[in-house]
Design goal:
- This protein has 2 domains: 2-71, no CATH class; 74-124, no CATH class.
- Helix content is 60%, strand content 3%.
- The protein contains 7 helices and 2 strands; from the N terminus they run αααβαβααα.
- The chain has helices at residues 2-8, 12-15, 36-48, 57-66, 73-82, 88-101, 108-124; strands spanning 52-53, 70-71.
């Protein structure tokens, strides 16, 4: 995400959201295995006790050590569905697209649990 923001600023879908840009110091070797985006996310999360959004496994391990809440791409899709921002079919399509089209490693059990959760919540709402 760091590179995406550096290249193109804030994505159009984010423009309508309430957000605040903050600078964080990412110098040093605190998390040398992480790229600058994950390092900045961890530093900010720690500084303001914020939820960290990342799919990077090493960064997720660090959030455990820092006792920070963390969510990945599938969690974001599930939250959008739970908030009514996505209907079930669109949420499932996005999860399948993440599995099929992204470079993320998403385990089959994780994808299955996410799709099953949407199915359960959809049937509970009927």
């Amino acid at each position: 995400m760091f590179e995406e923001l550096r290249r193109g600023g804030v994505p159009a879908a984010v423009e309508s959201l309430d957000y605040e840009r903050r600078r964080v110091d990412v110098a040093g070797d605190r998390w040398p295995e992480l790229d600058p985006g994950e390092t900045a996310a961890l530093a900010l999360g720690e500084r303001v006790d914020a939820t960290v959004l990342t799919d990077d496994l090493d960064a997720r391990r660090q959030t455990d050590e820092l006792d920070l809440e963390v969510h990945g791409s599938i969690g974001i899709v599930l939250a959008a569905y739970a908030d009514g921002r996505l209907v079930a079919a669109d949420a499932k399509t996005k999860i399948r697209a993440l599995e099929r089209d992204s470079t993320l490693y998403l385990s089959d059990p994780l994808v299955t649990r996410a799709l099953d959760r949407i199915d359960r919540e959809e049937s509970d709402g009927d």
